[in-house]
Amino acid sequence: MPICNMRLCGWFLCGQLLLAALVSEAEPPVLPEFTQSLPAAWINSSPLTTADLKNKVVLMDIWTFDCWNCYRSFPWLHKVEERFSTHNFTVVGIHSPEFEHERHRNAVIKKTHKFQLNHPIMLDNDFAYWRALGNRYWPTFYVIDKKGHIRATFIGETHSNTPRAQKIEKFIALLLAE
Q1: Which helix (H) or strand (E) covers residue 155, if one does?
Q2: Phi, psi of 118, rounded to the nearest 5 degrees
Q3: Which of 2, 107, 111, 115 is the most buried (most CB within 10 A)?
Q4: Quick check: helix, strand or coil at residue 152?
Q5: Which residue from 26, 37, 34, 29 is spatially nearest to 51, judged by alpha carbons?
Q6: Cα(67)–Cα(111) distance, integer angstroms
Q7: Domain membership flag for residue 11
Q8: Which of 95, 92, 89, 90 lies closest to 71, judged by CA?
Q9: pLDDT tens figures, 121-171
Q10: Residue 7 lies in a domain
């Protein structure tokens, strides 16, 4: 009887390894469709769809305006936008508020002016997009390829010329070359 159980365990293990190999070669997750389609839920842009971003590399920034780590990352974000401005590249911001006063569109607009954020920003007051991404932190940066797949996720404050920033920028350049 023990031999039979060992064979069964062996087959089970082989099956698990095969499944793991198949999963690791699966395509990266697809960027979820934007959850807000009304013009009032977008700043600096009319409502976007994921189809609008096809053939572009996208750096998505999940932020909220009272987050120090978020706004300390904006100088680096500006440099990335400038560096890749002549390529099929864009930044899309997702403003997911932590506090009640961050839910007001006019307050977010004031902050976008203060921080000179000119890229499209979707207001995610109901956290529907946050949940669709499975996001948990501010700021989080998602790098999306030209086919609309999420290829990388970076969590936390990011500054120019740091190893994290260099890694993200090299990854963007790599995706632009694909």
Answers
A1: strand 150-155
A2: -110, -5
A3: 111
A4: strand
A5: 34
A6: 12
A7: no
A8: 95
A9: 999 999 999 999 999 999 999 999 999 999 999 999 999 999 999 999 999
A10: no
Fill in the DSSP letter of residue 108.
Answer: H
pLDDT in tens, 34-57: 999 999 999 999 999 999 999 999
In the chain, how many domains are there? 1
Q: Which amino acid is present at 27?
A: E
b/e 25-60 (16+ beta carbons within 10 angstroms → b) = eeeeeebeebbbeeeebbbebeebeeeebeebbbbb
Does the residue 10 lie in any domain?
A: no
Domain that holds residue 170: 30-177
Does residue 46 form part of some domain? Answer: yes
Instruction: Record the pTM.
Output: 0.86
